[in-house]
Write a structure and sequence with these properties.
This protein is 14% helix and 36% strand. By secondary structure, the chain is mainly beta. The longest helix has 17 residues.
């Protein structure tokens, strides 16, 4: 598989061109110093930057104005079919930054770029009514020539229910982000939808659909690959590509934030302005833990809460039984299961439109995204290939640090499947090496936490009350 590669992190720049607004085309493949490409499953656009060492006064002679485009194609040797290819769908330059003159006759500057869809979103607004499923609405917003007008591959998961909405001069991405808050998957009723762009295209899909993917790699934290003398002293590349160069925990159970944010327990009060009634729905992290698929997808035995249900006090309350720690109020208008504010006089069923689903989605989404950002969240650096992207699933076997107290060779809680949340692809011209700095997250532990029902909060005798201060 890696017969054409000489070392882990090797890459080839097959094209790197700057298209300026004046019509000039500049080849930057021999003058760039570093290039970074950023992905994030919570961001609708790819972004990046490239630092150029200039001895030809490019900024003045071309000139570069921030109305320019960057095309590039980067490959990993032996994996050319999985290139990072933005030669047909180029990037937009939006800022020129950090102009330095390290020596006479040369200048170093940085160009910041973004997917053109991001700039297009800032330029246009949507003033239109829709009556369709949310996936169809999103597809129109992304492909309509009056809105985003994207030609990229789209990955849109089918959604349930027909919505009737009016977009009052919203930017398209703002409208999509608003809609994803109430979207429910047609397949498994999951409310955990994401809207993002990665190297493969633009995605509007549920977390469950990401968890259902096969792993793109298995990584470990170990020593550098051994030397294979039969191959002329070349390092064991396959081993090195699986090796984690460095890692650190970013977050691990910030309990106070998780309580205040509603991850562990919350409540939503729905006020129906049509029937003049209200209902209350609660979320309990422990009780609702298995409502939807988690990082191990269909292997529920490998998904365990990141907290245990040990009693906290003498009343046997667990950590997730305080639903009033965060309360929401949601107004709606329903007639049974339909939206009472919209009628279709051309249909036999006058109420075919569903109300918004905030009361069905918000508490679960709120908990899920806090779980990803404040639960098991690591930054990992690996040797780069063009096969790794945000939204992929990987397996990371974390070593045990310190003395072992059993037969486990890897951390039994935090090893296992992870979702790649962000990536920073780093291409360095000096070292000729591609590395990836990525954030990986998971929403469960591989092994159930131990608990002791007697481990409640220690309390002494009740204190005295002092109310005399002027004796």
């Amino acid at each position: 598989m890696f017969s054409g590669i000489n070392y882990a992190g090797e890459f080839n720049i097959q094209e790197l061109k700057l298209f300026t607004s004046s019509g000039n085309v500049i080849d930057l493949s021999g003058s760039y110093a570093t290039m970074n490409l950023y992905e994030d499953i919570f961001s609708p656009c790819l972004t990046g930057d490239i630092t150029v060492v200039d001895t030809n006064a490019i900024i003045m002679n071309t000139p570069i104005t921030g109305q320019d485009y960057l095309s590039f194609k980067i490959t990993t040797p032996s994996l050319e079919k999985k290139a990072i290819d933005f030669t047909e769908t180029v990037m937009s330059i939006y800022r020129v930054d950090t102009r330095l003159s390290p020596s006479t006759g040369s200048e170093v500057f940085t160009l910041h770029f973004s997917s053109p869809e991001g700039l297009r979103d800032s330029r246009v607004r949507v003033s239109k009514s829709y009556a369709d499923s949310i996936d169809v609405i999103v597809e129109d917003l992304l492909t309509n020539k009056f809105y985003i007008n994207s030609k990229k591959d789209l990955f849109i998961e089918p959604t349930s229910d027909i919505r009737k909405i009016v977009a009052p001069n919203h930017h398209p991405f703002r409208l999509i982000n608003h809609l994803k808050r109430e979207t429910i998957s047609e397949k498994n009723s999951s409310p955990n939808f994401l809207f993002y762009e990665n190297l493969y295209g633009i995605h509007f899909r549920s977390l469950d659909s990401l968890y259902a993917q096969k792993d793109v790699g298995q990584f470990h934290s170990g020593d550098r690959g051994s030397i294979d003398f039969k191959e002329g002293g070349v390092t064991n590349i396959a081993y090195d590509l699986k090796r984690v160069l460095d890692y650190q925990f970013n977050a691990n159970n910030d309990t106070l934030r998780n309580i205040r944010g509603g991850m562990l327990g919350s409540n939503i009060i729905t006020h129906d302005i049509f029937t003049k009634s209200y209902t209350s729905k609660t979320f309990d992290y422990m009780d609702n833990f298995y409502d939807f698929n988690r990082v191990n997808y269909n292997k529920k035995n490998k998904d365990n809460p990141i907290y245990n249900d040990v009693p906290l006090d003498e009343f046997d309350n667990t950590i997730s039984e305080f639903s009033n720690s965060k309360i929401h109020l949601h107004p709606t208008s329903t007639n049974g299961l339909q939206d009472a504010q919209h009628y279709d006089s051309t249909s036999d069923n006058l109420n075919i439109y569903s109300p918004n689903n905030i009361d069905k989605t918000h508490l679960t989404r709120q908990s899920k995204y806090m779980e990803l950002n404040n639960g098991s969240n690591l930054t990992v650096e690996i040797n780069g290939t063009t096969t790794i992207s945000a939204g992929n699933m990987i397996e990371f076997n974390m070593p045990i640090n310190g003395r072992q107290h059993g037969n486990d060779k890897t951390d039994k809680y935090y090893s296992g499947r992870y979702l790649i949340q962000t990536t920073r692809h780093m291409f360095d011209q000096t070292t000729k090496r591609h590395t990836i700095l990525m954030t990986i997250v998971k929403d469960s532990l591989n092994t159930k936490l131990p608990k002791n029902d007697l481990a409640i909060e220690p309390k002494g005798k009740r204190g005295i009350v002092v109310n005399s201060f002027y004796s």
